[in-house]
Amino acid sequence: MPTPFRKNIDQSVIKLLQERSAAWKKGKSSSHWDASVRNPAYITISCAGVTLPRNEKTFGEVYDKFKPGPLLKNVTLTQGGTYGLTQELSAEIQCHTMSDFLTVEEAYGKIHNEVTIQFGYSNKSYAKKGYDYHKQLKGYMIVSYEFNTTSEGYWIYKIKAMAAGDALRDFDLQVGALPKEFTKLQVKIDGENHNVTDFLELLDSHAQGNGQKALDEVDSGTSRFITSQTGGIGSLVLYDITTVNNGGFRLLAGLKGAFERATGGHDLLVFYTLEYIVNIINKTLIAKGKEINKTFAASGAEIIFDEDSISYLDPNIVSARPFQVLIMGNGTGNYRNNKGRGIDFEKKAGNPNLHAVSPGGPDGTHKIDLKKILISQEVIMTAFNMEKGEKGKYEETSVKATKDGGLRLDDFFRQIFSTIDKATGGAIALRLSIPSETLLNGGGRMNKLVIYDENNGYYEGSLNCVVFDPINGDGTTRSCSVSSDAGSQTYQGAMYAGTQTSNDSCEPVHKVSDSEEYEEVKTKNQTKREETIEKWKKIMRDPGKLQKSGFSESNQKGLEECNTAFHKTIPKKEALNILAYPGLKLSLELDGIYGFRIGHAIRTMTMSPRFFEADAYFHITEVTHNFDGESSDWSTQIEAQIALHNNLTNYWL
């Protein structure tokens, strides 16, 4: 089963590490020089036809009027940020002549220029085993640069580049007119047809079937699959809940007037699949941005789903906010109680293409196709009209201000994702990320943003785990540190956010330190789960308080609490859910090696046997490669957080 957050370490990486370990052990026993000499590394960066360092072979090529050519001082390559799925590159260049500075500036001083790097170890006869490695990465886009002069009379030029997809987070969705294809569509307003002029009118037009019928004239349960000149967009469905709601549902005040004009005063809900929202953004607002900006057009940036865009949910979880988010399939869209009050959204639509849920997930879970999660028009309108927000920590490299008006793409989707999170009690926590495979290969899809669920930690089968040995030496480890997160904000949040959160977040450390109490907690969780099922039945079925109260806020909140409890107490959640926990973290510095990425599993011999017995390991959360141009040294820094997995295959060094 796919997950972006748990991946197997490639066997080629394990082989290199084992070769280094063998060389180290050979050197220890026979004083062989292989074990004590660090292999020199190389790195080059290229941008707009300028490659550094230059391939200089003669004195005249190296020196111009007795001054050396540009020096590549250092390069740092980082996979980090929230959940690690972001790519960043920084470099420092030293120039000794004005002509060299101007050459560097012309190539590296243009925002959006693509940077390619190539690195590895030299092909020399004396190269040790375990160091025969070469890699090229493409797809980094320059987002900022700076330069200054020194008292010695040379220039220092610094650049920062990132995956082109990451830069898409700052795209301003308020770009003005739509592409011509969509302005030809019709929307019915106050009984009259008009051409579509903006994004929100386009949503109405699609719901009305290109202005054919006002929304209050469309049959409840009507669904449509929307297409464009460039292919499918996604589905929508409309429901009349006038008799279902009993007055319990209230539109936001700012939206009520517009909604009533479109629906004739009926309680009508229009839901759009998440796939529709993504594609309509790609085909209208992002497409319009590409018409305006040629550089942006050349990047090919877009939002996508991939094979990892799925979730696994406890089968008892349903949307607690059915007028905002619907997750249908296998009965999860049925909001009728045992007296027949309420609405079966699933049966009313009768369209399996709207079903996000399919049974048969691992360990009895439901598999959720994220593309088919349904979002109400109210939620989309709220997100589209919100003010620009602050950036997350993973966006610190961005060059666009956060308070200059407009609506950032990332803010829009955060609002959508937050609503889904609330409706599922935290069971689905979506985020935009660069595609996970680019963490190792770059290139191909570095210009994309993909939608992932942070809680999708399921990995089928054995997970490869490298065991480092900093105590006896393994030929790779330079330093190793294991420390507690006690006192950190994440740890405090885990300890004081409530019983369920506490048990979940501290679970790996708890399992190691007191296995008997850990088993007692699991028993208590099962009891809690059984109590929650009874609570859920009273809200949803018998007597069905949610429907009797007209879908009141208090009962929706109660259903939300049920979802949280189901998510936190799901059996075998160690293999299914959130993977990195506060408690213990590992910092590891290695001789440079490429191939570790976020989601890989590692252990160290500094861990006591209890950690191995408890199936604990360290889940990599950040990888940084530091290249020093002056010493030809390459080091790899790994940060990792404790996690649990019940099927690990150890590779000892």
The number of distinct β-strands equals 31
Number of helices: 22
pLDDT averaged residue by residue: 82
Q: Unreliable stretches, pLDDT < 50, 5 or more residues?
A: 247-265, 388-403, 492-506
Largest sheet: 14 strands, mixed
End-to-end C-alpha gap: 29 Å
SS content category: alpha+beta
What would you report as the Rg, rounded to the nearest angstrom? 28 Å
- Helicity level: 25-40%
Spatial shape: flat
Percentage of residues in DSSP E strands: 25-35%
Question: Which keywords apply here?
Answer:
653 residues, 5-stranded antiparallel β-sheet, single chain, 22 helices, alpha+beta, 14-stranded mixed β-sheet
Commentary on this structure:
With 653 residues, the chain is of the alpha+beta class. Among the domains are: 42-163; 180-300 and 321-423, no CATH class. It is built from 22 helices and 31 strands. A hairpin with a 5-residue loop joins strand 18 (334-336) and strand 19 (342-344). Helix 15 (489-496) packs across helix 16. The radius of gyration is 28 Å and the shape is flat. The model is unreliable at 247-265, 388-403 and 492-506 (pLDDT under 50).
Explain the layout of strands and helices.
Elements: H1 11-30, E1 41-47, E2 50-52, H2 59-62, E3 63-64, E4 67-68, E5 71-80, E6 86-95, H3 98-108, E7 114-121, E8 134-149, E9 155-163, H4 164-167, H5 180-183, E10 186-189, E11 192-195, H6 199-207, E12 223-228, E13 231-240, H7 242-245, H8 253-263, E14 268-273, H9 274-292, H10 294-299, E15 302-304, E16 310-313, E17 325-326, E18 334-336, E19 342-344, H11 345-349, E20 357-358, E21 366-369, E22 374-376, H12 377-384, H13 409-423, E23 430-433, H14 438-441, E24 448-453, E25 463-468, E26 477-484, H15 489-496, H16 499-505, H17 507-513, H18 515-540, H19 545-548, H20 553-568, H21 573-576, E27 584-591, E28 601-604, H22 609-613, E29 616-628, E30 633-644, E31 648-652
Parallel strand pairs: 15-24, 25-28, 25-31
Antiparallel strand pairs: 1-2, 1-7, 3-4, 5-6, 5-29, 6-9, 7-8, 8-9, 10-11, 12-13, 13-14, 14-22, 16-21, 17-22, 18-19, 20-21, 23-24, 26-27, 27-30, 28-29, 29-30
